């Protein structure tokens, strides 16, 4: 007859890392694991790292945002500007970067790389370190519940190289940098179970790490809060008798944690909630970017293997595969008496259900009226800006710990055939998750003008209007110029109708630029008085002092439009056409 469920402590690995040589050995093994993950990360992403200047890991578009943020932070600090607010986008009103993915903490860490090698190189370094550090933190979490180094390494691999992290590496390094969920597991184990460290010290560390996560990705922090609920409830129900006696220690940790978090994150939150250019209203509508039942078992376009047509990736990977699902079920059945296994299973099931969104979707384009648990979450302020599909990150973390715990027990089994069978089962389960290689990469085409001395001739008192819809390219150009000018537009969330708007703040002129530059509409020989008056009014409102027409599909026609509007031809230099010293008040129609 099996023994009753153990206390939380009995699920943890023996304290082999305490004292003297064992602790040094644990540090060495941890460093070795980090080295393995770095090598594997570089091997996966090498095409974006070593195939020429301007090449980035992943796809074009969203990486432009982070390239700009990486350049902005050291520039702002070096020029005594507030790094959380900027008028270098959407001049003169500017943008509140706390409402945008401004990656303050990663940008600060990578500032030396940005200064020495430029923001595009810094972006690629961020992508490599995001994958490797996520895997390493996953390893550290798994290591607390295993004696086998190899088992913990596999658990870290499953988490850090999961379809979620791999898919986010296409353009969202702030989400691929998933260190916090794994560290949250370590903190939970230490605060709720082991309770060995001094409470104030543990609280300060927890508050600091949480503040750093706020300044890396608020969405991931919100997801952690959501996903902590089912795990904590499961743990409390399994050990109801111990809840009261452990509560005193928890409260002694909570005080310093809250004080530290407020001290570090209080001002950024003030800027976001009460500062200028804040936005209002939910950014996403219900069931925007949700998982489907099909996607859990059909490989997406970031998996190397998989029979038949592949599903289209919708923002984030949720693929688990039938072999891994069967292994997870078998591990839970076998090790169901272990607290860590039960909590991991509850977390995995919760993540899969919540990632489906507010209503059940069986496959893409097939929504049902069946309501799901995400519905009440979607009405909560702040949490309604979280995309449901992304909570599957916590499912992969649970799978990583579960597989590591399974392998740890298998590798210590007395019978060789059971050890071999268990390892083979894990290999078969994990092979379908292998990412496609080489990982996608693309190149930003940056005109030579923006790295030349000519860029410093642009207006520094007003703004520069750059044309290239929708503005992702222009933000990279501005970053490469080391923020030599303020941009009249830019890809950012700013206040607008209904509480917010995205991208350009141009009106009739923006519409004309899109129709001419993107669609190739012919430019009239002369502008009507009403059109000219509207366009000049926009230039005046944005205090435009220079205009740059960059490479685009119909560059010559856009240049012809500005020649007519500004009354003179621009200068062709470094792949762009430039009008210096623009004075909207002196233009015809002003």
Number of helical runs?
21
Rounded mean pLDDT score: 91
User: Percent range for helical residues?
Assistant: 40-55%
Q: What Rg is obtained from the alpha carbons, in whole angstroms?
A: 26 Å
Query: Whole-Å distance between the termini?
Result: 90 Å
- Structural class designation: alpha+beta
Sheet with the most strands, sense and barrel status: 4 strands, mixed
Description:
The chain is built from 21 helices and twelve strands. The protein is an alpha+beta fold and 590 residues long. It has a four-stranded mixed β-sheet. The chain has a two-stranded antiparallel sheet with strand order 1-6.
Set out the fold topology.
Blueprint: H1 20-49, E1 55-57, H2 63-78, E2 85-86, E3 95-96, H3 104-109, H4 111-117, H5 119-143, H6 149-160, H7 163-168, H8 173-176, H9 179-194, H10 199-214, H11 218-238, H12 243-274, H13 322-334, H14 339-354, E4 359-363, E5 366-371, H15 374-377, H16 392-411, H17 416-430, E6 441-443, E7 463-467, H18 472-480, E8 493-494, E9 501-502, H19 508-517, H20 529-541, E10 544-549, H21 555-566, E11 571-573, E12 576-579
Parallel strand pairs: 7-10
Antiparallel strand pairs: 1-6, 2-3, 4-5, 8-9, 10-12, 11-12
């Amino acid at each position: 007859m099996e023994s009753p469920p153990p206390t939380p402590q009995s699920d943890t690995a023996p304290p082999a890392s305490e004292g003297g040589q064992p602790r040094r050995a644990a540090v060495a093994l941890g460093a070795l694991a980090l080295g393995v993950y770095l090598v594997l990360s570089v091997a996966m992403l090498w095409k974006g790292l070593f195939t020429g200047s301007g090449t980035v890991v992943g796809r074009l578009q969203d990486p432009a945002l982070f390239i700009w943020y990486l350049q902005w932070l050291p520039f702002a600090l070096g020029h005594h500007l507030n790094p959380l607010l900027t008028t270098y986008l959407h001049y003169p009103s500017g943008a509140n970067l706390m409402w945008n993915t401004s990656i303050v903490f990663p940008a600060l860490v990578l500032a030396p790389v940005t200064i020495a090698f430029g923001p595009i190189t810094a972006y690629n370094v961020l992508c490599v370190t995001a994958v490797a550090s996520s895997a390493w933190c996953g390893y550290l979490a798994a290591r607390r519940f295993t004696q086998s180094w190899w088992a913990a390494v596999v658990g870290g691999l499953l988490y850090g190289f999961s379809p979620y992290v791999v898919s986010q590496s296409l353009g969202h390094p702030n989400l691929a940098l998933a260190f916090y969920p794994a560290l949250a597991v370590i903190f939970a184990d230490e605060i709720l179970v082991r309770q060995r460290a001094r409470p104030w010290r543990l609280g300060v560390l927890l508050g600091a790490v949480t503040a750093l996560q706020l300044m890396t990705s608020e969405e991931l922090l919100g997801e952690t809060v959501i996903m902590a609920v089912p795990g904590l409830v499961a743990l409390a129900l399994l050990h109801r008798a111990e809840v009261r006696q452990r509560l005193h220690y928890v409260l002694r940790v909570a005080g310093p944690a809250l004080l530290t978090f407020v001290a570090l994150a209080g001002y950024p939150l003030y800027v976001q909630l009460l500062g200028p250019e804040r936005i209002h209203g939910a950014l996403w509508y219900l069931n925007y970017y949700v998982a489907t039942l099909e996607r859990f078992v059909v490989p997406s376009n970031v998996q190397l293997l998989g029979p038949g047509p592949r599903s289209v990736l919708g923002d984030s990977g949720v693929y688990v595969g039938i072999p891994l699902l069967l292994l997870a079920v078998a591990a839970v059945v076998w090790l169901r008496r272990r607290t860590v296994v039960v909590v991991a299973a509850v977390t995995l099931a919760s993540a899969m259900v919540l990632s489906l969104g507010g209503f059940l979707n069986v496959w893409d384009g097939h929504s049902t009226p069946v309501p799901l648990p995400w519905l009440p979450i979607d009405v909560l302020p702040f949490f309604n800006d979280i995309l449901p599909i992304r909570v599957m990150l916590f499912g992969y973390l649970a799978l990583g710990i579960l597989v590591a715990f399974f392998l740890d027990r298998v590798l210590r089994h007395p019978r060789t055939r059971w050890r071999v069978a268990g390892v083979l089962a894990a290999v078969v389960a994990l092979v379908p998750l292998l990412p496609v290689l080489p990982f996608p990469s693309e190149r930003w085409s940056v005109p030579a003008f923006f790295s030349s001395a000519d860029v410093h001739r642009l207006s520094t008192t007003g703004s520069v209007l750059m044309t290239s819809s929708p503005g992702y390219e222009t933000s990279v150009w501005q970053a490469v110029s080391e923020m030599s000018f303020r941009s009249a537009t830019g890809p950012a969330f700013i206040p607008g109708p209904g509480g917010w708007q995205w991208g350009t703040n141009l009106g009739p002129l923006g519409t004309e630029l899109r129709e001419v530059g993107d669609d190739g509409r012919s430019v009239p020989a002369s502008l009507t008085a009403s059109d000219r008056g509207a366009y000049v009014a926009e230039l005046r409102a944005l205090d435009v002092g220079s205009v740059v027409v960059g490479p685009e599909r119909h560059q010559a026609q856009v240049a012809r439009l500005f020649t007519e509007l500004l009354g003179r031809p621009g200068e062709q230099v470094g792949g762009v056409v430039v009008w210096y010293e623009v004075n909207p008040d002196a233009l015809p129609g002003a």
